[in-house]
């Protein structure tokens, strides 16, 4: 029996994690759940799985939920303190970080300190604090199991290859809904256009990130930390069908890849059952139907999200945090209809250019940098 705690159980990854758990209820037990504010869904999850603990970041909603589930023996907590309690709960073996944004950093640190394995979906954590998280996981003997489909594919392509040098990571990218667009065409795209991802159904923030290629940029940085490679060894390959989920090239030129239909339940389940594989009720790949796969070079001059990611990744220190925080800020504004699509890039650029680099920032500094970026952008873009 594996005991699971979930950060962000009401979201896209969170609910798919729950589907996986439901299918293998004899092997998995949910001991803690949490969300930002969607207490209606959280209540249903609590009633179904009877966890020991649940956390709601919004404190008023936490109180509301507490009243609603009085009849269930489940402790309700709120705020960041509550998330940290979920991360550290004594009864769990693994924490699924399905929360969105760099708010995931602190709970992940706490979970590692509490010796929990991490099924990592929240890429913002490694982007901003990879230099802290990775050595810390090593020191505490904790496994970081990637849930992001590309990183799970790379992880699977490394199975049995531990002693061989990676010559290159080939990170595949669907290209998003605006693949092939020129800058001019991007000027007038709307929020709804950007939310219409061709292959994956995901939360709003990551869907926008996929349309700007910021998501791929975050994934390049995530790959650097997870697999200990330098940026010149991470190459993004646009592959619109999303069938190859990523690949590893070895020194002898051999390339190992993981392929399948685009279904996040596969990497989620693999992170939970690793090193075993289990039956998964998903559409299997049919090569007769597929017929062909295509590949392209990413257009980094138009999709600046990826170009800037390599830039800030290579600078390192606090720069990836600035890139990430500015993007979180800009995406929120774009989703609220307050700015145009290309403004997202301008906001990230502005934040990078106005930041004074801090080498090797600690967790507190990372959180402070995020706040400073928000304050700076508020002054200029409110
Ligand atoms: P989502 O928006 O669908 O869900 C986010 C979850 O986090 C929700 O349960 C929400 O309640 C919770 N949350 C948000 N802010 C919170 C806060 N302040 N406190 C507590 N909980 C909070 O997002 P998603 O698409 O499931 O993505 C989650 C993470 O996984 C992101 O980092 C994303 O980049 C990554 N990821 C997602 C996918 C995907 O297919 N959805 C794929 C790869 C990686
Ligand atoms: Mg991904």
Summarize the structure.
The protein contains 17 helices and 11 strands. It has helices at residues 12-23, 39-49, 59-68, 79-88, 105-113, 123-140, 149-157, 183-186, 191-194, 204-212, 214-227, 265-273, 287-290, 304-315, 319-335, 343-353, 363-381, and strands at 2-7, 28-35, 53-56, 75-78, 94-97, 117-120, 144-146, 166-173, 234-238, 244-250, 255-259. The strands form 2 sheets. A 7-stranded parallel beta sheet has the order 4-3-2-1-5-6-7, with helices on both faces.
What does the model show?
The protein is α/β, with parallel strands linked by helices and 382 residues long. It folds into three domains: 2-146, 3-Layer(aba) Sandwich (Rossmann fold), CATH 3.40.50; 152-314, no CATH class; 316-382, Orthogonal Bundle (Rna Polymerase Sigma Factor, Chain: A), CATH 1.10.1740.10. It contains 17 helices and eleven strands. The strands form two sheets. It has a seven-stranded parallel beta sheet with strand order 4-3-2-1-5-6-7, sandwiched between helices. The longest helix is centred in the last third of the chain and has 19 residues, at 363-381. The N and C termini lie far apart (50 Å). Nicotinamide-adenine-dinucleotide (NAD) binds next to helix 1, strand 2, helix 6 and helix 10.
């Amino acid at each position: 029996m594996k005991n699971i705690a979930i950060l962000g159980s009401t979201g896209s990854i969170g609910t798919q994690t729950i589907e996986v758990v439901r299918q293998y209820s004899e092997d998995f037990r949910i001991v803690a759940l949490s969300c930002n504010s969607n207490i209606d869904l959280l209540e249903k999850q609590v009633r179904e799985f009877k966890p020991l603990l649940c956390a709601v970041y919004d404190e008023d909603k936490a109180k509301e939920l507490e009243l609603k589930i009085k009849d269930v023996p489940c402790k309700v907590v709120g705020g960041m303190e509550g998330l940290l309690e979920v991360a550290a709960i004594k009864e769990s073996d693994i924490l699924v970080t399905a929360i969105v944004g760099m708010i995931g950093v602190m709970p992940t640190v706490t979970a590692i300190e509490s010796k929990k394995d991490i099924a990592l979906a929240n890429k913002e954590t490694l982007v901003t604090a990879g230099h802290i998280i990775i050595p810390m996981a090593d020191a505490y003997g904790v496994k970081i199991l990637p849930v992001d489909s590309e990183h799970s594919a790379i992880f699977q392509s490394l199975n049995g290859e531990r002693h061989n040098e990676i010559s290159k990571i080939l990170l595949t990218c669907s290209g998003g809904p605006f693949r092939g667009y020129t800058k001019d065409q991007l000027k007038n795209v709307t929020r709804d256009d950007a939310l219409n991802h061709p292959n994956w159904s995901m939360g709003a923030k990551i869907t926008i990130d996929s349309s700007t290629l910021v998501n791929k940029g975050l994934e390049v940085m995530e790959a650097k930390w997870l697999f200990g490679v330098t940026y010149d060894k991470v190459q993004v390959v646009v592959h619109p069908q999303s069938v190859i989920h990523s690949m590893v090239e070895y020194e002898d030129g051999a390339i190992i890849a993981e392929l399948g239909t685009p279904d996040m339940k596969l990497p989620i389940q693999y992170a939970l059952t690793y090193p075993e594989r289990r039956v998964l009720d998903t559409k299997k790949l049919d090569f007769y139907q597929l017929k062909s796969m295509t590949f392209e070079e990413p257009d980094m001059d138009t999709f600046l999200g990826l170009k800037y990611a390599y830039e800030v990744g290579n600078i390192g220190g606090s720069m990836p945090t600035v890139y990430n925080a500015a993007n979180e800020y800009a995406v929120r504004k774009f989703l609220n209809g307050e700015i145009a699509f290309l403004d997202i890039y301008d906001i990230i650029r502005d934040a990078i250019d106005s930041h004074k680099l801090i080498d090797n920032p600690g967790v507190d500094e990372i959180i402070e940098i995020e706040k400073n970026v928000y304050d700076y952008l508020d002054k200029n873009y409110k």
